[in-house]
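With this grant's support, we have paired protein sequences with backbone structure tokens. One protein thus recorded is set out beneath this paragraph:

_____
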Amino acid sequence: MWLEAGMAVLLLLALAQSALLIHLWRQSRQLQQRIDALSHGAVRGLTDVPTSMLVTALGRLERQVGLIEQQPPPARQSYELAQRLAREGADVEQLISQCGLSRDEAKLVLQMHPVST
């Protein structure tokens, strides 16, 4: 009789442990699913911020390129005019006023293109 009672108690303990293990296993699966969902959401949230920053930066760059495209082309003609005027005997002040050169640029043009004789 004691043997049967001991076996019954052991059987009940084994069943209780099995039920507890199944319960803990289900909880761990639910926690893992929640962790996966949170980490996926966090990764998505992290990638959204840089993407929006890139879009904003790209918009700024496009506006700047548009402004640059609206500006007149580089002053190649001004330099060609300055060279011609320098060969004809123009001075620094004339190159500055007629060609839009800085003082140093005008001096350089005069040095590079002396008066033709």
The first helix runs from residue 2 to 70. The chain has a mean pLDDT of 84.
